[in-house]
Amino acid sequence: MANVERISLSFPKFLLSELDSIVESKNYSSRSELIRDAVRKYVIENNALNPGKTVNGMITVVYSPSKDAMEEMSHIYFDYENIIKSMNQSYVKTACEKNKKLEIFVIEGESDIVSEFYQKIQNISGKIYDNIIIF
């Protein structure tokens, strides 16, 4: 591959095992190919939030349900309730058998406000996963 730079990444064993399973089941040629694909998707989604346009989408977050984290999420929710069209909450077990809280938001609003909302969610205490899909 021309113009490729090597980097080093560290993963917990259970996550690396999950990564390897995906490489095999989705027929990726290597871990690197899967990681490049995931980063490309992240860049595309991030660029969809360029300022000045109205967007619709879905934001998913999974986090440890501590009192502080749930209060943080509550404040974020009320600060951005004008762009939240619906919300669903549930408790789930992760791959490492830990109980976590899952929240899904359907959103509609100006891209800069949606981006601000998503950035707040990305920074909550105990977050282990977040995702945004813009359509």
TrEMBL record:
GO terms for biological process: regulation of DNA-templated transcription. Residues 57-126 form the Transcription factor NikR nickel binding C-terminal domain. This is Predicted transcriptional regluator. Keywords: DNA-binding, Transcription, Transcription regulation. Belongs to the transcriptional regulatory CopG/NikR family. Residues 5-43 form the Ribbon-helix-helix protein CopG domain. One of its GO terms (molecular function) is DNA binding. It comes from Methanococcus maripaludis (strain DSM 14266 / JCM 13030 / NBRC 101832 / S2 / LL).
